[in-house]
Each structure stands twice: as structure tokens, then as C-alpha cells.
Write a structure and sequence with these properties.
This protein has about 260 residues and is α/β, with parallel strands linked by helices. About 25% of the residues lie in helices and about 35% in strands.
Amino acid sequence: MPHYEDYAEYYDLDHDTDIDIAFYQGYAEANGPRTLELACGTGRVMVPLAESGIQIDGLDFSENMLARCREKLAARDLLGRSNLYLSDMADFDLPFKGYGLVYVPVRSFMHLFSQEAQLGCLACAHRHLRPSGIFIVDVYSPSYRNLAQAPDAPFRVRREFDLPNGNHVVRSDRFVSNDPALQIQHCEIRFQETAPDGALVRERVLPMDTRYTFRYELELLLEQVGFEVTNVFRDYDRRPFGGNGEIIMIGRKPE
């Protein structure tokens, strides 16, 4: 997982998208009155949901990320509607145990590097849901072509953005290796920050490791902790999964 103490300041600009907001908002409104987001980070999803009137709590293991989320909630006078918890999503115990919706967005589940950790996360989510509550997890569908690729020699530029202080950031990444036994891909991301005059301010290279999970493997994990899998989508328009794209899995806690 990236070193969030080095990554938090870039996260919002590096993930400047709202493609999944309406998707999670719809499920939160339909499964109220209270929602929990695991790996909430800086609140990219959580804050808009809170703004829409949803009572939502967030959990993350990075205080740096939570600090930015807290700032955004405070700026919108939303702290009274949300609780933030510093905890590991693979092992947590919160005061409230009756959420109608618990979700792990934006492939964050892929930062659990063992089956034990994955099951821990799912079991904790199940325990914090009310009967008939909904759990949503989003991972990408593994690509055999990508899994078999050779290591990238150079970094590839993915995006560029400007910071509030006027500095410019070039974000690049590269594939390093794949471990098929552990189902872990090792990559690196690089941030090159320059001043308005072009002078290099700093350069950071951070590891980005992710554990990929196949569709039926993930389904069995959910079922093992007691969920009924009701839907598997390939995107946030709720199109059925067909072998590629995202794996967005919907689980229901039985009555």
C-alpha cells in the first residue's frame, strides 16, 4: 500500500473523479438510515454523501488521510453527521452495529494482501450490518494480458495536476512484477513536483502493491462469512459483469 504520509497531500487531485458517487449514494439512500465507508481516505466519496444528507461514518488506518477528510467535513459543517475512526479495515470493532450499508470503494479491498485479512474485513463488515443490510466491494477484474506483462523499464506518465500553492505535479507509474502464487502485483508510482519556474521541488517514488481476486473467489469469500451475493456488476451503471471491467459485488446479510 502507498505510504500515505507521503501520498495524502496528492490523493484528491490524483483521484479527481466522481464516477462512483451516484452509485453509492443510491445504495445509501435505499438502505438507510446509517452507512459506513471502509478505507474512506480523504473523503472523496464520503463527503459528497454526507453533503447529500446521508448519515455516514468513515474508517481508515491513515491519520494523515483522516485529517484531510476531517478538514473537508468541518469546512462543510458536517462533523455532526459523521464519525471518523482510525482503524484497520481487516480488524475493527465500532460502537454502532446496525449499519444499513457498508462498502469498500475504489479497489481499496485490493490492499488486503492475504486471504486472512480479506476474510477479517468481510467478517467485520457482516458483524456491523443490521439484518438485511448491504455490503459492497469493488475490485478490478484481473487481466491475463496484464498479469503476463514484462516489467516496465521507464515510468509512464498518467496524469498531471496543479497544487493550490501553484506547483505542478506529474504523476507516473510502472509495473514492477507479478507474484502469481500470492496474487500480488508490485508497481511503483512517482510524483515529480516542480515550482512555477520549472525547478524540481521534490520527487517521490512510492510502492503500490495490490492483491487481485477473481470473481468466483470473491463470491466464495463473501459467502463464507454469511453474505448472500445478490448482484455482480462490471461498472457503476450496474451492467452485469461479463469477464472484464470492475467486479462490483453486492452482498446481503440475511434476516
